[in-house]
Amino acid sequence: MSRARQLNELCCLCFLLFKLFFPLVVALRPSLCSPCLCGSNFFRAYRRMVSLTMKSHTVHLTFNLPARMAFENITPKVEQIVADSGVREGLCLVNAMHITASVFINDDEPGLHADYKKWLEELAPFDASPKTYQHNRTGEDNADAHLKRQIMGREVVVAITDGKLDFGPWEQIFYGEFDGRRPKRVLVKVIGE
Question: How many domains does the chain have?
Answer without folding.
Answer: 2
